[in-house]
Amino acid sequence: MKILRDAGAALSLLAVFGFLASCAFVGNDYYPNYAERLLARTDLDSIVKSASGSSIAEIGGMNYLESSGSSALFVEVRAGNGAHLLLALDGSGLGDAKAYGFDAYGLSSNVGIAASGAGYVSGKALFSAGRALVSDSLPSQPFLLSEAGSNYFLSLSAPRTLQFLAYDSGFNPLSTTSVDLASADNWELVAAAQGGGWYCLLFRDDGSGAYRAFRSPSLAALWSSGWTTLFDDATVPAKYRSGAFRSDYGSAWITADGPVVRSYDNNGTVLTIEPFSGSSSDYSLSNMGDSSFSFGASGELWFMYERKTGQLDEMRTWW
Amino acid sequence: MMRPDRALAYALILAIALLGAVAAEAEDTSPKVTLFPTLLRGDPSRGGAVDEESAAVYSAALRSSLKLRLGEAGYSVVEDGESLEGGFPEAAEASSRAAKAGSSFAAVCELSLTPGRIAYRIAIYDATDASLGAGDGFSAFSGLAALSLLDGAAARSVEKLAAYDARRPGIARRLVGYRLVVLCPIEGAEVSVELPGSSAPIRMGRISGGRLELPYYPFVQGTTLTVAAAALGRRTLRASVALGAESPPSIELSEGKPRYDLLLGTGTGRLMGLGGELRFFPGSEWLFGFAEARLYAGYDFQQGSSPLVHTDIWEGLGSYLFFPPPARFRMGYSMGYGILVCTVTAEDASDRQYCDFALLPVELFGEYRLKGNMCAWTSLRFAYALGTALLPKGWIGGGAPALSIGALWRKR
Q1: d(Cα A249, Cα A182) in Å, to the nearest integer?
Q2: B173-252: which CATH architecture?
Q3: Residue B309 to chain A, least CA–CA distance (Å)
């Protein structure tokens, strides 16, 4: 009987433990859950402080790019003292940060990969693969994609036409190709990226707030395979386009695997990949404060800046 | 009308009884034997019902024969009219009661009656140690012939008793002449004594005012007693004492002071691992220092996740707050600090180790003693991270306590 009594007491303790462990108030692992996919971390606030003398006030766009065996993460920041910088960090380890005056060089938060391994292009500036400033006199367009030794600046010259302005590797103009968006809506191009063997485009309808995403194995396919009406679902294979989707908080990113949107639930931020093929997958970031995110175009890496800690993290994706 | 053989039996019994009484009166100073009421067992086929009339005849015959033979052998018989309650084996109870009555021996008769047959048993125990000194028993057909067999059994038992008694010179001289005093911190605890070779403890009384003077019992010098104090919700305290010629100091029942505890367990947020804690008690049963190491992994079982291996070191001080050391359940509080190292196992990670520091202002714990020095243990920990690495500055877990559970072993 005593053994039964003792066993009963032990089972009662286990039951209490199990009950409490299942309760939300006890919480999960007390480490941030993203730590299990963490590859590198850097104190971005300290970098900005040393570059500008002031802490970060605002994070603009973040772009992760891979070119000729190197990689870089470009981050647009505004410091508390008004300094406007483009930080160029080593994409592997987030070290060796270089800071450039945003306005002095006519930079853009959208950074593209220059053709022939020439480096990276932001606004009018060309950076080498080592992120050193090479030139600040390029033709300026918001987005740059490159393929087969040619650079293509993307421009919405009319509400329904997306133009590809071709340049050679020395940024001498070649020709222009147009793609009809086949829509009366006010679609804006909000992101263009290349990685993982794909070219990706993300559009947003300024009126409804809806997004649409596309991917193509080559730029030529966009204008030479019957895709001349990009938003006409009958002409673009389903595996290369998403349906219209919304991001209630105006945050969406494009990857080769599909667009990622941000939402919130009772526990905090939820990031959802909506794959071009397959089912969606959520990732919850519990107890997170104000944060900024970016996703590599290849869909393998993602980045997060957390304002509360000033830390910038490089992590593996969850899909 | 009474049958002639039964009338003759009553006449014989009366005669034997008269002779026995005369013999007993003549031996007032002789060693005493306490004779208990006969244990009667009935016919199992009739639900154990006893034929009262027959039982009275045979019981009276057996008791009268025994008293007569004891008297003839020089023993005086004291009859204890109260039945033995403990049932078989009756040695401990009979011996204890006989000793309290000042007798050297306890005699127990037992009769089992079934139609046409009678089984009988005589057992005479040494009141000093409840050992069987003498006895006899057999079975026979019912009737007058059985009476002579009962008398024969009584005679043989007394012969054996005399032989046993002759072999035990000095036992009486070796009875302890002092009273034992037990000291115990558990008020109201019931104290019992276990004799060597006896499975039935002898109840001695309850602790009052932190002590109990044991009532007289014919303890024999050279015996090692086990004294136990038991109370509801408390661990039973035990102590052994060897009885010598001189009175030993008071028998103090306590658990002894703990030297250190070893705790093993796991908890929320670290179910993929274990933690071990060592507590050391610097001379107190209430205060302790502790050092804890936890090794566990974090993993979300999704694509791209790599185990994050944690090695946590926590150190600090603690104190029990409620319930005294002998209590089955105790609660307490501890505080300290932690050094939390985690290692990223992803092959392509450029930063592999992070070290966080944390304060432990509040940890509440409870223990439930299961057996001996083993307890089930649980705690609620509120820890504050200093924001030195991966953990953001603030209450770990957003203020929700980390729940732990495990087992504790105490070394005294």
Answers
A1: 27
A2: Sandwich (2.60)
A3: 9
